[in-house]
Amino acid sequence: MVTRPSHDQGVNYLSVFSNPLIMASLSKGLEVADLSGKLANFADFIIALDKKPNLLLLNGHGLDDKITGQNNQVLISTKLINKNLTGTIIYARSCLTANLLGPKLITTGTKSYIGYTKELIIVTSDGYDKNQLNDPLAKVFLEPLNQNILELLNGHKTITAFNKSKSKLRKNIRFLLKSQIRQTRDIAAYLWHDHQCQVLLGDPNAKI
Amino acid sequence: MKINKIKKSIALARIQAQSDKIKIHFSSGETLTKDDIISNIENETEIGKKLVDLHIEFLQDLASGKINSDD
After folding, report:
1. A185 partner at 20 to 30 Å CA-CA among A65, A118, B24, B58?
2. Which residues does chain A have within 8 Å of residue B30's beta carbon, measured at their own beta carbons?
């Protein structure tokens, strides 16, 4: 299952960069519940959870104790844990949820949880509003994050997915730092921040 | 708490050198231009303080070799 609200520029980038992951899932014959835009609401989320998905990609805004969907409607909070999240692997592309929500989900049976302990930051270039997948800066930030899901789809453990994602983040940081253009080099600070706050909770050996 | 003046000037210098043609998106919902970031740091807002910390931590980790050795 993927939730991908699109009510502001930041989450819209996350939504668009989820498209290749949906395509990769479908090409492997997997069923995908795609809660895009208005469908990323609480009611549709609960209905989709009834099918007990084994992998959830949650794009959205978050706080320590909650993650939201379209127009910041809360989908999961520490006070509202759906039983169908037991046994799942969750990757939450939002800020802060690895502080309280992730640990709470692990204690209630979610197998593993990849998330962020601080703000997740994405830098994008102007002029790509209608062609976001080709935005060279957005690619530097979001392709390493997509690696978490791609590795899981390839049957790897969450620890492998997590490490590959972090490795790709470091590779891109070094790429930026080697740039002859100072404006490009300085952006590495934001990518390093994302690298440092991405964490894995729960069972590192979990697979979908 | 006020931002340390030296840290603030270092962060501002780095941000002023950034391109005008980029946007920074925070997963809390804010999207900031370069001018927005400078304003937030100059006014010492919460997000401005976080951005100063982010740039200073990056420089510290770069200087310590952590960024190039963290495999």
Report:
1. A118
2. 10
